[in-house]
Design a protein that fits this description.
The structure holds 2 protein chains of 2 kinds. By secondary structure, chain A is mainly beta. Chain A has strands at residues 4-6, 19-25, 38-43, 50-54, 58-59, 67-72, 75-80, 89-95, 102-103, 107-109. The N and C termini of chain B lie far apart (40 Å). Classes of the chains: A mainly beta, B mainly beta.
């Protein structure tokens, strides 16, 4: 199985600052169609996960431009610009390159 | 508006089974795959598998191959997951999630808590 390893954040992050979350995969997530199959989700307390980005960097419908995904191969980053209180929660990366789909262990973001 | 409405919390004895439902509204379930995901706070998120409600095709993570059974009823626009031979390891919140294509998990149910205890 592909192992997804996420980095930690220096919590709490002051409101208005930027935060970057890293995610590393044990295998390249590039598929033969040229796309890189990496999703990012935010799970707010007591809620279900919300898709933020897919194919590494494509923002999902309705997601703020403050969220930007980047990366290639096995190393990925989710940057959150000008963090707000509503951004608090646990962020997960997920590879959907091959079965079984696997998630990172999550990165908690706290806002000051 | 797309919504996935999951059934209420469940309490089961070890060794029993449980069937969870996920009723879709705002779209036809035959147009998208339905995935199921397990969440335990100390273990994070685990993908269980998907079902294509149009033809009943399924794909499971090997770990859940003998644990979960995914089905769908197109007449009620509802997907189901049955968990068998329950143990304390099955105590978790379970989410259904629709995917556009196979990989874009764009809508999620609210989750259902399953507690396995004697």
């Amino acid at each position: 199985d592909i192992v997804m390893t996420q980095g930690a954040l220096p919590n709490p992050v002051p409101s208005g600052e930027s935060a970057s979350i890293t995610c590393r995969s044990s295998k390249s997530l590039v598929y033969k169609d040229g796309k890189t199959y990496l999703n990012w989700f935010l799970q707010r307390p007591g809620q279900s996960p919300q898709l933020l980005t897919y194919w590494t960097s494509t923002r999902a419908s309705g997601v703020s431009e403050r969220f930007s995904g980047s990366g290639s191969g096995t190393y990925f980053t989710l940057k959150i610009s000008r963090v707000r209180a509503e951004d608090a929660g646990v962020y997960y990366c997920q590879q959907v390159r091959e079965y079984p789909f696997t998630f990172g262990s999550g990165t908690k973001l706290e806002i000051k | 508006e797309v919504q996935l409405q999951q059934s209420g919390p469940e309490l089961r004895r070890p060794g029993s089974s449980v069937k969870l439902s996920c009723k879709a509204s705002g779209y036809s379930i035959t147009d998208y795959l339905m995935h199921w995901v397990k969440h335990r706070p100390e273990h994070g998120l685990e993908w269980i598998g998907w079902i294509d409600p149009e033809d009943g095709e399924t794909k499971y993570a090997q770990k859940f191959q003998s644990k979960a059974t995914l089905t769908a009823d197109t007449s009620s626009n509802t997907a189901y997951m049955q968990l068998s031979s329950l143990t304390s390891e099955d105590t978790a919140t379970y989410f259904c999630a629709r995917s556009e294509g196979m990989t874009k998990f764009d809508y999620w149910g609210q989750g259902v808590m399953v507690t396995v205890s004697s």
